[in-house]
Amino acid sequence: MPAFADGEVVSYIEPKNATNPAPTMRLDSFQRFEAAPIAMDPPYAGQKPNEIAKESIQANLDLRLQPVLADWNAKPVEGEARALKIEPTIRHVRFITGGKRFFAGGLAGGSAVLMTVKLSDASTGEVIAEPEFYQHANKMGAAWSFGATDKAMLIRVAAMVVNYLKANYSASVGGSTTDAGEVEF
Question: What contacts 74, CB < 8 A, 6 or more positions away?
Fold first, then answer.
C-alpha cells in the first residue's frame, strides 16, 4: 500500500481483531452458495455518502464474487445439497464523496468502512463464521489523489471478502481483518 494512504484514520471505526478466526468447517462442505445483498446498519443507512459507498462495495463484490460462486455452484451434487448463506453487512462507514473531497480536500476528514460477513447453513441457521473486514483512507492521501484512495478503500474491502471465502473453501484457515493483499482494480 502506498505511504500516502497511511496515517490518520477515522478513530471511531476499527476492527475488533487483527485476524479473523477460521470457519468451524471448510466451505467446500457445502454444495450451494447464496450471497445476499449488502445490508447496512443504522445510523449509516439512508445517508447519501454511505449509500454511495454501499453501492460501490456491492458492485465490486458482485464483480469478484459472482464468478467464484458460479464456479462453486456448477459442481455436481450427489444427494441433497447443503447451502451456505453469505450475508455481508456494513457495520460502520464514513465515506467522503468526490464532490466533498474536491471542495474540502483533507479538511473533509478520512474515510473508513467496517464490514462483517455472516456465513451460515441456509437450512439450519448454524453460523459457520462471521469475519470482519476493515479498510480506511487517510484524509491527506485522499485529498492529494482527489478521492481515489476513498474509492480504492471500497474496492479493497470487497476483495478482502472474496479472498477470505476462497482461502477457506478447501481449508479452514481464517484470514486478515485489515490486509487486502493483492487487489486487481
Answer: none
pLDDT confidence of residue 77: 85
Alpha helices (H) along the chain: 48-73, 98-104, 139-144, 148-167
* Euclidean distance between CA atoms 163 and 155, whole angstroms: 12
Q: What is the pTM of this model?
A: 0.83
Q: How far apart are CA 157 and CA 165, in angstroms?
A: 13
Measured in whole angstroms, how far is the alpha carbon of residue 2 from the centre of its chain?
20
Q: Which ranges of 9-138 would DSSP assign to H, the alpha helix? A: 48-73, 98-104
Which triple of cell numbers denotes residue 121? 447453513
**Is CATH 3.40.50 what the domain over 18-169 is classified as, yes or no?**
yes
d(CA 33, CA 84) in angstroms, rounded, equals 5
